[in-house]
Amino acid sequence: MKKKEPKSLGGRIRQLRGDLTQSEFADILRIKQAMISRYEADKETPSPRILLRIGQFSGRSIEWLLTGADTLTPPQPGQVKRVAAKTTKGMSKDELVDVAGGYLRDAKAPDGDDFIIMMKDCYADKKRMRKILDYYRYLRFEENARPRK
């Protein structure tokens, strides 16, 4: 049986929180637990900054959070792969890692050079690579969730 889509912003936030407690979710978003409670009860609307953090945490668009609908056209099946294949055609694994490393340096990711070396060392180990990429995504989320000064 398909889950019912929440009808309110608060319901969608509650759905995205999943098994996390309100306190745990609040810690991730760097706000107070009471605010999560108010958002989920539809007593208050999150600021754009908090909506962005929730979207980054969940991978959902702010549009979906606010309306329950995504009107952006998703890529057609295989479209991303075709574009990536054209862009990277003829590149070696080392060149691909160097391109990714350039992105990390441009994004000012901490220890970007160390990450590049680690990627080259474990390129053949897909399970290890997946763990490293998951950790990197977590670091990027944490970096984006920090309040700007």
Task: Name some characteristics of this structure.
149 residues; mainly alpha; 9 helices; elongated
Give a verbal description of the structure.
It is elongated, with a radius of gyration of 19 Å. The mean pLDDT is 76. The relative contact order is 0.09. α1 crosses α3 (33-40). The longest helix is centred in the C-terminal third of the chain and has 20 residues, at 126-145. It has nine helices and no strands. With 149 residues, it is an all-alpha fold. It has helices at residues 9-17, 22-29, 33-40, 48-58, 62-67, 79-88, 93-106, 112-122, 126-145.
Helix share bin: 55-70%
| Average pLDDT score | 76
Strand content: under 5%
Flag low-confidence runs.
none
Task: Describe the structure concisely.
65% of the residues lie in helices and 0% in strands. It has 149 residues and is mainly alpha-helical.
What's the layout of helices and strands?
Elements (H helix, E strand, L loop, with lengths): L8 H9 L4 H8 L3 H8 L7 H11 L3 H6 L11 H10 L4 H14 L5 H11 L3 H20 L4
Helix pairs in contact: 1-3, 2-3, 7-8
